[in-house]
């Protein structure tokens, strides 16, 4: 596997492989000696798990890490835990019979990870009160990508048990999204699960895009429901944040849209159009983003009404969800 990764990375002129390590001890020594900009880390290592090594690394020398994982249930669970601990991204390990083509995006992922803002992990704030006496008047739509596993958890920690109906689109493979929902549900007050087709949007429920062949849209033709749309990628992604945002255009004054850390521009155009149609919008601040890509573009297009550090992001969305509908902006 290390030979395959090296062979792929050496075709990218912006990258230089400075060291390889087969064990956690070798990895620690290589980090101290070569001071690399980025590390790829397998979740399965001899003597010490990839998770345990990642925890120690983020505590003593925070740096961008890209996890390499199998898409098994166990591999997906560990990958989600790794991203919650601070790994920038996760790529799928080639399966038996597969080839280097399954690693096609590895070099680009590492190049982009080199610019990620990685620091020591801050403790997650305690959960808020079980319920909130405010009257929520809007639904919440949240989009994220690179670095957003931790950001979404911190956002939902601020949500009460009776939070506004909430939909989340996060860029990850389908098995990772299943593991992500299963991880979040016991950690926060609202119920968190993978969205199905035709689910009613209910207070106290957070529905996550299932990924795979589907985008997660809002069906605005009657009582608000989810719609899983089997369609090509939008803005380069499936599930797509833009697809979700744009589907809610007809009910924009009843929407709060939030855009979290991530590479690229998915969600930026959808947020701009939602805001123009009367939605309230929040962007994660540059200072608290792992990758200030999607929020930056959304801000440049005029889609961001309010900026918030990740520790205040959830409360900012709840605050906007309580305010009366306003006239459309131009």
From TrEMBL:
<feature type="active site">
    <location>
        <position position="266"/>
    </location>
</feature>
<dbReference type="GO" id="GO:0000156">
    <property type="term" value="F:phosphorelay response regulator activity"/>
</dbReference>
<feature type="active site">
    <location>
        <position position="145"/>
    </location>
</feature>
<keyword id="KW-0963">Cytoplasm</keyword>
<dbReference type="Pfam" id="PF00072">
    <property type="entry name" value="Response_reg"/>
</dbReference>
<dbReference type="GO" id="GO:0008984">
    <property type="term" value="F:protein-glutamate methylesterase activity"/>
</dbReference>
<keyword id="KW-0808">Transferase</keyword>
<keyword id="KW-0597">Phosphoprotein</keyword>
<feature type="domain" description="CheB-type methylesterase">
    <location>
        <begin position="130"/>
        <end position="324"/>
    </location>
</feature>
<feature type="domain" description="Response regulatory">
    <location>
        <begin position="1"/>
        <end position="108"/>
    </location>
</feature>
<feature type="active site">
    <location>
        <position position="171"/>
    </location>
</feature>
<dbReference type="GO" id="GO:0032259">
    <property type="term" value="P:methylation"/>
</dbReference>
<dbReference type="InterPro" id="IPR011006">
    <property type="entry name" value="CheY-like_superfamily"/>
</dbReference>
<dbReference type="Pfam" id="PF01339">
    <property type="entry name" value="CheB_methylest"/>
</dbReference>
<dbReference type="InterPro" id="IPR035909">
    <property type="entry name" value="CheB_C"/>
</dbReference>
<dbReference type="GO" id="GO:0005737">
    <property type="term" value="C:cytoplasm"/>
</dbReference>
<keyword id="KW-0145">Chemotaxis</keyword>
<dbReference type="InterPro" id="IPR001789">
    <property type="entry name" value="Sig_transdc_resp-reg_receiver"/>
</dbReference>
<dbReference type="GO" id="GO:0008168">
    <property type="term" value="F:methyltransferase activity"/>
</dbReference>
<protein>
    <recommendedName>
        <fullName>protein-glutamate methylesterase</fullName>
        <ecNumber>3.1.1.61</ecNumber>
    </recommendedName>
</protein>
<keyword id="KW-0489">Methyltransferase</keyword>
<feature type="modified residue" description="4-aspartylphosphate">
    <location>
        <position position="42"/>
    </location>
</feature>
<dbReference type="GO" id="GO:0006935">
    <property type="term" value="P:chemotaxis"/>
</dbReference>
<keyword id="KW-0378">Hydrolase</keyword>
<dbReference type="InterPro" id="IPR008248">
    <property type="entry name" value="CheB-like"/>
</dbReference>
<dbReference type="InterPro" id="IPR000673">
    <property type="entry name" value="Sig_transdc_resp-reg_Me-estase"/>
</dbReference>
